Amino acid sequence: MIQKLDMATPNFTDNNIQKVAELFPNCLTEKKDEDGNLTHAIDFELLKQELSQVIVEGNKERYSINWPGKKEALLKANEPINKTLRPDRETSVNFDTTQNLYIEGDNLEALKLLQKSYLGEIKMIYIDPPYNTGNDFVYKDNFTRDKEQELQESGQIDEEGGRLVANLDSNGRYHSDWLSMMYPRLKLARNLLKDDGVIFISIDDNEVTNLKKICDEIWGEGNFIAQIIRNTNSSKNQSLFVSVSHEYCLLYSKDMETLKIKHKNDKWSVPKNNVDEYVKKVKQLQKEGLTPDEITEELKTLTKYPRFIDFTNYWYFDDNGLYRKDNLGGVKDGNSQPLFNPITKDNDPVPPGGYRYNAEKLKNLTSENRIHFHTDGSLPTIKRYLHENMNQRPKSIMSDDQRPDYTMMTEFNTPFDNPKQLSFMKRILSLADQDSIFLDFFSGSATTAHAVMKLNSEDNGNRKFILVQIPELTDEKGEAFKAGYKNICEIGKKRIRKAGKKILEENKDKEGIENLDIGFRVLKVDSSNMKDVYYTPDETSQKKLPGLVDNVKEDRTSEDLLFQVLLDSRVSLSDKIAKETIQNKEVYFVDDNELVACFDDSLDEEFIRELADNLKDKDILKVVFKDSGFGSDSLKDNVEQIFKQLCPNTEIYSI
Predict the structure, then answer these.
(1) 58: pLDDT confidence band, cut at 50, 70 and 90?
(2) Distance (Å, rounded) from C-alpha 591 to C-alpha 572?
(3) Which of 98, 159, 186, 542 could join 94 via S-S bond, C-beta 3.0 to 4.6 A?
């Protein structure tokens, strides 16, 4: 019998019930649904007892974060949707060959649609969600409560409607809407990460405390890695009291133990920040004729600035380059033999505990000019050259070059308020493997995509990105609207195109640069390709049947259907897609042997046999047809037998 594809996102509630039942089978019970049918459910009182070491008697106080609308937010995360992703070739770049995705639509719906194809496949998620400034969000999930009801339940007005708090911007609803927006998205995002995956979330003071609490709940306190403080050097702060010049980036792992095992002998390492600019400054000072001592004093001043803080102590240089001085002692029972100072022509004092190197090693270091000798009797030190120590462990305080990205405006002509700095994004993305998939579901100006392409051009990596952005309209009074951009998606896609071309031009002489993936498939969140009868056949009356012979909507193409099948079949949306013609019928081949599909009408037995004969030596996993595409009911009955004879290992599905 030909199997039917669901063509819908998973029912997360049913999945969660099954997971709980696997751990606590005695908590599985039955209940009747709205139609009176029996369905599985969880005995929550019994589950509470299973998770307690004392007798549970009613509600107990516990440590948690709560807000009006939290239950609705959780329900929204688990609620299935009948949506799909429709391909848009016109605004894509290298649609057939690229492995990158740009998804237009509400990210809550997009995250649900990605659950099958990318479950446990994402290495790193970075998001820069809208900060809670008290303004309305463009993400208007329909689960917030009636405003008056919520104000009353949260203690902001009394039963007569009298206000109980003076400033609504500091009340519960102000935080509740933002938390209800973020909670289901983070919950769904966690499912997509690999076990050794991580998530970075940028945020400011308004919600950093609440964000950490819901992340502790969703990701687990044990998976918290760090709260990074990022110096932004903001000059626009209008505070009466303190000029806040930083924001935060919360960092969580999917599974800390798995992450620790992976990096046991491979600790995280990133390039020092703004190294090229620092070295350039030294060369400039040399050209100006400053003495080494004068340059050292200039560098001591320069490293007081946040963007050069990584080079503190790298104040000295010789013919081999910039270096810092490091201790030659600091050991017990070390080498107590004096070291001759070629400058003073005398032996230098021995460090307490002796030298960490033997006499032979010290002699070699001296001959290689690796020892910094002093003229004032100070202990000699070893030179640690910058070019030998270009990387470091990521710091919990990051100081990026926060000067405006003029490339966005002047060269790309893509105006955007407060885009994330490319240097910051490159640094955090560089922590992941070179073949990783990165997800950013608050894409904005598409800095993540730019950083991925830039990193790949530098180290020949095969990183891939998935961006999600709601097509938020631009301000009619803003620069973006005046430049012709109707929504943020248009800005992001334009930037990726411009950035890709610029990277190719800058590296045109580099071997293999022609293989750099600067493309992206544009997919748009839309209603299902299937008519309502596909999902609710029991609600269809006899009178409606003549118009529903084909259960596919009239305005949908075969490629639309293909991508919904990919979503339902747990196939990557970036897999290579080839199209062939067999007996005047269009046949799609996805990732060579992963999936084959034909959605044409009037299929006959001759076509089915030729298709099956072509596939018999290719070990095809799945073949999909359109239910109404079979020329006759008898053919539909014979399809399975034909494939069983020629392709016994291939599964047959219809939509």
Answers:
(1) low
(2) 9
(3) 98
pLDDT tens digits, 565-619: 999 988 999 999 999 999 999 999 998 778 999 999 999 999 999 999 989 888 8
Whole-angstrom Cα distance, residue 337 to residue 348? 10
Q: Write out the DSSP string of 124-150.
A: EEEE-PPP-SSSPPS---TTPPPHHHH
Statement: residue 546 has pLDDT above 60: no
First-to-last CA distance in the chain? 14
Asked if residues 106 and 138 have their Cβ atoms less than 8 Å apart, the reply is: no
Asked if 64 contacts 455 with a C-beta cutoff of 8 angstroms, the reply is no
Distance CA 362, CA 348 (A): 13
Given CA atoms 627, 632, 638, 639 in this order, what sign does their dihedral have? Answer: negative
Mean pLDDT, rounded, of the chain: 86
Q: Which residue has tokens 């070019």?
A: 387
- Do the beta carbons of residue 619 and residue 593 sit within 8 Å? yes
Radius of gyration of the chain (CA): 31
Q: Domains of the chain by range and CATH?
A: 86-131+180-269+396-527 (3.40.50.150), 275-392 (no CATH), 530-654 (no CATH)
CA neighbours closer than 13 Å in the CB half-sphere of residue 50: 14
Lowest mean pLDDT across 553-557, 582-586, 628-632: 628-632
CA 610 to each of CA 586, 606, 613: distance values in angstroms, whole numbers, following the listed order = 13, 6, 5
Rounded Cα–Cα distance for residues 452 and 440 (Å) = 11
Q: Rounded to the nearest 5 degrees, what angle is found at the Cα of 510, between the Cα atoms of 507 and 515?
A: 85
Q: How far apart are CA 567 and CA 111, in angstroms?
A: 12
d(CA 501, CA 344): 58
HSE at residue 351, side-chain half, CA atoms within 13 A, is 19
How far is 121 from 604, CA to CA, in rounded Å?
A: 39
pTM, two decimals, is 0.82
* 360-369, 533-542, 562-571: segment of lowest average pLDDT: 533-542
Q: In this predicted structure, what is the pLDDT of residue 420?
A: 83
Q: What is the DSSP string of 164-226?
A: --S-GGGSHHHHHHHHHHHHHHHHHHHHHEEEEEEEEEEE-TTTHHHHHHHHHHHH-GGGEEE
